[in-house]
Specification:
Number of domains: 2
Shape: globular
CATH architecture of the largest domain: 3-Layer(aba) Sandwich
CATH class of the largest domain: Alpha Beta
Strand order of the largest sheet: 7-6-5-8-9
CATH superfamily of the largest domain: Aspartate/ornithine carbamoyltransferase
Order of helices and strands: HEHEHEHEHEHEHEHEHHEHH
Distance between the termini: 10 Å
Largest sheet: 5 strands, parallel
Bound molecules: phosphoric acid mono(formamide)ester, norvaline
């Protein structure tokens, strides 16, 4: 059977996505489920950008499933001295059963997947963050009770996390509304593809520059940092541009009374979200972080099956 990679939520069918979320719920309910699934197997985890949650949750997930995680920074590999991604993927496939990478361009992941004979996992790229998207969907399904028809308002930068929410929401019939400042909208290609997917599932996908349009009647309010990794030099300028796109009490007042608040973390209190909102009683950010472990265990089990 052909190997499967996990590079974008757009690559999964709606049924596959739901099955993964069901498996993640099972992993959460029974922490020993999948305990031997990676016995005798190794997973290489490469980080070309910093990470707290992804790195630790994957390392713990692999170990708890009986596998051996090999965690490396990008600059520890020969990649930094000019070895190609293609050669790297070909060689790592000789030793490992899964290769997972956090990097800059999505094209690097595509190239790696093309040259590797084992599954390749996207641990975050400038374009998308599908592992985060999986945990987000599991969190919403548990907190709200379903995904179909659930209105999610994402405020802030039309970035990698927004893209994965758009794909994941569209695949599961959600009503995803993205509100960004002008010039910071998500990729037009992701918008078009998500709208096409939403048309098939009964979901909706809209993009606006008006916060109230996206937040009114929302079941979920979501935000992420204004300056992602790699955009640090723009951080100062972005503070002014994003000022009116903060997840604060005003945004919360527009949403449904029982709306939940989400953030992929790390958070900058006082910038994209106020301390009162992220630390308030609507916030599910710690469940969201915890679900990274369960969804990734389900993902690894699926990839090596
Ligand atoms: N949300 C997330 O991916 O966090 P890390 O950057 O800490 O891995
Ligand atoms: N958009 C953020 C997500 C961090 C998990 C970044 O890329 O830095």
């Amino acid at each position: 059977m052909a190997k499967r990679d996990f590079l974008s939520l757009a690559d999964l069918s709606s049924d596959e996505l739901t099955a993964l979320l069901d498996a993640a719920d099972n992993m959460k309910a029974k922490p020993t489920a999948g305990a031997k699934k990676l016995a005798g197997r190794s997973v290489v985890l490469i980080f070309e950008k910093p990470s707290t949650r992804t790195r630790v949750s994957f390392e713990v997930a692999v170990t708890s499933m009986g596998g051996h995680p090999v965690v490396l920074r990008g600059d520890e590999l020969q990649l930094g001295r000019g070895e190609t991604i293609a050669d790297t993927g070909r060689v790592l496939s000789l030793y490992a059963d899964v290769i997972a990478v956090r990097t800059f361009g999505q094209d690097r992941l595509d190239e790696l997947a093309g040259s590797s004979s084992v599954p390749v996992v996207n641990l975050l790229s400038d374009f998308s963050h599908p592992c985060q998207g999986l945990a987000d969907l599991q969190t919403i399904r548990a907190a709200v009770g379903s995904l179909e028809g659930v209105a999610l308002c994402y405020l802030g930068d039309g970035n990698n996390v927004a893209h994965s929410l758009m794909f994941g929401g569209a695949k599961t019939g959600m009503d995803v509304r993205i509100a960004t400042p002008r010039g910071y909208e998500p990729s037009p290609d992701v918008v078009a593809r998500s709208q096409q997917m939403a048309a098939e599932t009964g979901g909706k996908l809209s993009v606006t520059n008006v916060v109230a349009e996206a937040a009114s009647g929302a079941d979920v309010l979501y935000t992420d940092v204004w300056a992602s990794m790699g955009k640090e030099s723009e951080a100062e300028e972005r503070l002014a541009v994003f000022e009116h796109y903060r997840l604060n009490d005003d945004a919360l007042a527009l949403a449904n009374d029982d709306a939940i608040v989400m953030h992929c973390l790390p958070a900058h209190r006082g910038e994209e979200i106020t301390a009162g909102v992220i630390d308030g009683d609507r916030s599910v950010v710690w469940d969201q972080a915890a679900n990274r472990l369960h969804t990734q265990k389900a993902l690894l089990a699926w990839l090596v099956d």
